[in-house]
From TrEMBL:
Location within or outside the cell: Cell membrane
Alphabetical list of InterPro entries matching this protein: FAD-dep_OxRdtase_2_FAD-bd (IPR003953), FAD/NAD-bd_sf (IPR036188), Fum_R/Succ_DH_flav-like_C_sf (IPR037099), Fum_Rdtase/Succ_DH_flav-like_C (IPR015939), SdhA/FrdA/AprA (IPR030664), Succ_DH/Fum_Rdt_flav_su (IPR011280), Succ_DH/fumarate_Rdtase_cat_sf (IPR027477)
Topology term for the membrane: Peripheral membrane protein
Source species taxonomy: Bacteria, Pseudomonadati, Bacteroidota, Chitinophagia, Chitinophagales
EC number(s) per entry: 1.3.5.1
Fumarate reductase/succinate dehydrogenase flavoprotein-like C-terminal domain residues: 523-656
GO molecular function, one term: succinate dehydrogenase (quinone) activity
Name of protein: succinate dehydrogenase
Segments forming a coiled coil: none
Keyword Kinase listed: no
Alphabetized Gene3D superfamilies for the sequence: FAD/NAD(P)-binding domain (3.50.50.60), Fumarate reductase/succinate dehydrogenase flavoprotein-like, C-terminal domain (1.20.58.100), Succinate dehydrogenase/fumarate reductase flavoprotein, catalytic domain (3.90.700.10)
Domain FAD-dependent oxidoreductase 2 FAD-binding: start-end pairs: 35-461
Keyword Cell membrane found: yes
Gene Ontology biological process: anaerobic respiration
Amino acid sequence: MLDAKIPAGPLEKKWEDYKGHVKLVNPANKRKLEIIVVGTGLAGASAAASLGELGYKVKAFCFQDSPRRAHSIAAQGGINAAKNYQNDGDSVFRLFYDTIKGGDYRSREANVHRLAEVSANIIDQCVAQGVPFAREYGGLLSNRSFGGTQVQRTFYAAGQTGQQLLIGAYQALERQVALGNVKMYTRHEMLELVKIDDKARGIITRDLVTGELERHFGHAVLLCSGGYGNVFYLSTNAMGCNTTAIWKAHKNGAYFGNPCFTQIHPTCIPVTGEHQSKLTLMSESLRNDGRIWVPKAKGDNRRPSEIPEEERDYYLERRYPAFGNLVPRDVASRAAKERCDAGYGVGTSKQAVYLDYADAIQRYGHIEVGKRGLTDADAAAITSLGKEVVKEKYGNLFDMYEKITGENPYEVPMRIYPAVHYTMGGLWVNYELMTSVEGLYALGECNFSDHGANRLGASALMQGLADGYFVIPYTIGNYLADEIRTKEIPTSHPAFEEAEKAVRERIEKLMSINGTQTVESMHKRLGKIMWDKCGMARNAQGLQEAIEEIRQLRKEFWSDIRIPGKINDFNPELDKANRVADFMELGELMCMDALQRAESCGGHFREESQTEEGEALRHDDQFMYVSAWENTGGDNWQLHKEELVYDVVKPSQRSYK
């Protein structure tokens, strides 16, 4: 049975009461306990730093050459927190409510409320670390709006918030490394979980420089390895992002929660051709001031400057007047797809819409004229002043867009289109962030717990840091308090022997195929199946076809893949092959999960289940649960259901109108 271990009592008291009654480990015993942390992005770096500072012996692993290269640096727009600095009605409850509603009532109340509670502490922590958040003229921290909210609660550092937060967590981590509390393993990839007596006791890693396999023991294992969006090949994720760590855990007994819940980000630079291997995100913060539109006439090929205002369709403002351009990501993405599919798309591909800053430039320009008392400012001066303000707020994003497209977004509207961005699914965890395997935890994007069927913008950084700084330091003690008598298990134990043997045999099998096809080509084919049939819209027939196509592709992969180089050497193609093999298995499970969930909710849009207006139609009487999949061996899975109970929020049809 799935036991979420949700504390009793009123929702707003659960976390406080939990912390007051949780088991503790005294400092002398902490020094005897070893913890493995896999991944050193925001969740991993903050967890390793916090646990090291508490006195535990920590081993941290990342497959990059430095934790600073974790994909967390790619986050642009901001981090949410219920500080109510703008005095606009925000509160812990409102952040909690927006997150539950934004996730289309498919997330666990207790976890989300805890996230909202600790959000304010995250900002204080990061300011103390020196994170250079944007500030108002008077020195107070600045906020802006993000999708799915009607308040300003997003803290930011220009368009590089993730990078600045990661540097803060990284310096905290490096301090613990220098003190000897954390041992850092760079260029190491986890390839297997080791269980002894049904408890997580270690991992098998591969040194990506030498190719050597290594064994590492830990009293507990924390997976902080990010999401699996690269199953779609084209996504906003870095090319190295993968599912291997959590997939190995899943194959070893950890349940996989809601694998089909994928977020499509509405503001990305459109695909330009077959040559691309990834897509570029344009921060959702741009929707804060930018207006999204398409021509009112189908196939209108005029330049945007030639299309008068009355011939433009600001379709988000028209369809969702209460939220306008700041509707949640799933709503904005589907609306863009609908307009393009109906023939109103722009650009050469017709698979794009405009994100226009002309109005914002004029608005800010007039504000500056008033601030500076310029009574004789002409139109050119107003425009110039407006551009200065926009540049200060979003300059690096505009520069990035111009470098990639060759177009100046201060003069010409950006062209954007939805792309795969984030995965709400991940390993199933209970309230303590422990998976269904004892001693194995999942933090950040690689767990399922906080975002339901759709993540609100600027909540990923919030969750990663909340889990690492403020949740796991308490909850892991509840488990380790009973492990203080467990001595370090030597890595010569048969369980380590068997796990390493399985990894070695898999690698040797991959290298021995010596076929004709490249890993990249097979990954691209998998991605096309996933995007076409398990992407922004899904239907039963397409999902059934996708499952069969993926199974056939897997057979082809294991019979005709070609991997150059050697095993015991630096071999990126071998690394990639291992990851793509896991993606192919995961892709099948994602389609199975999407097929059984015959409703639309958040980012999971089943074409058979929609309202007359084309909005997602949930079926709470049938699907008010977390899909928790157990791998029962090979290609067989069993579905378990964690029923979702809402004591405070009453689920209703989402409306942003």
